[in-house]
Amino acid sequence: MKAAIIEAVGQPFVIRDVDIAEPIGREVTVQVKASGLCHSDLHVAENDFGYPLPGLLGHEISGIVAKIGPDVTEFAVGDHVVACLVGHCGTCEACRAGRSYECYNPTFVQRTADQEPRYSLDGQPVFGFMDIGGFAEQVLVHENNLVVVNEDIPFEKAALLGCGVVTGAGAAINSAAVRVGDTVAVIGCGGVGLSAVQGAAIAGARRVIAIDLQPAKLELAKKFGATHVVNPADGDVVEQVKALTDGRGVKHSFEVIGLKATAMQAYDILAVGGTAYLIGMQKPGTILEIDPITSMLPMQKGLRGVVMGSTNFKHDVPMFADFYTQGRFNLDDLVSQTISLEEINEGYEELKKGRVARSVIVF
């Protein structure tokens, strides 16, 4: 099958003919119809996180079930599905409590070392990022990494549900449990940030403040429910946010960029008793310096890392898909452009320049 892989950190994606194994056990082969260009894949392509190479990145996919292993019980050939990187066993205490994102045995979905690799090139294993490897014509995944969605949602929209949407909207709805009347700020208005804005709006936040350097993205954020926008180019972010909140700051802030400076901004714009949620991937070695005596304890502030929006994706992804087809959730404006697999490097250049919310590869 045709796939875009990385052969060295910091080098462009290259198109190769990668071999894909037959499904065994509870594995499912999916014919990929759409694959989103998530910023997390770019981080891995450009920074050495220790993942083996060559690597098949991509994890935000939708498609149609093409084959199933002999032990699959949840899917049938022809199902429309979305993949999610939240690997889970389904039987541990966290999974049984509905917190699959905290699974104690996330490697349960992987093949063992003595089994044939799912992907290979010239007889050598190819690492499938996040147990998916979605920049390819097909993926081979455990059924615990898939969920069926309604067939009315277009594939290029559905693909975004498995990562960008559940990460952003889930952070607001699940992780922060935003309540009616809360004040919220979102730093970074890419695909995940816009989803966080929309999640906060759906939850009933009184003020939803979108923060970004790109005027076009701030205008776009208004389509997702932002009530106010802040451009750091116009002055100090903390002061601008306080001016919009009667000098108090916000109850919930979400940092979706992955920079030390913006992570500290997320903390500094909090009101008394507020919590900052760090979503963006920081570079390895990043250290945040916070004096608990002068700010955290007296201001009762919180700082929390969030992975995948604390999502139970088997529930959340179909829900958001239904919201979309009911006209209650905006996915159309998340897809900035559709591209071919061969245009992946150009797509990521557009992402790095901040010009797009999401580019989606279509097959």
UniProtKB/TrEMBL annotation:
Its cofactor is Zn(2+). Residues 10-361 form the Enoyl reductase (ER) domain. It comes from Mycetocola tolaasinivorans. This is Zn-dependent alcohol dehydrogenase. It holds the Pfam family ADH_N. Belongs to the zinc-containing alcohol dehydrogenase family. PROSITE patterns: ADH_ZINC. One of its GO terms (biological process) is formaldehyde catabolic process. InterPro entries: ADH-like_C, ADH-like_N, ADH_Zn_CS, ER, GroES-like_sf, NAD(P)-bd_dom_sf. GO terms for cellular component: cytosol. Keywords: Metal-binding, NAD, Oxidoreductase, Zinc. GO terms for molecular function: S-(hydroxymethyl)glutathione dehydrogenase [NAD(P)+] activity; zinc ion binding. SUPFAM superfamilies: GroES-like (SSF50129), NAD(P)-binding Rossmann-fold domains (SSF51735). Signal peptide: none annotated.
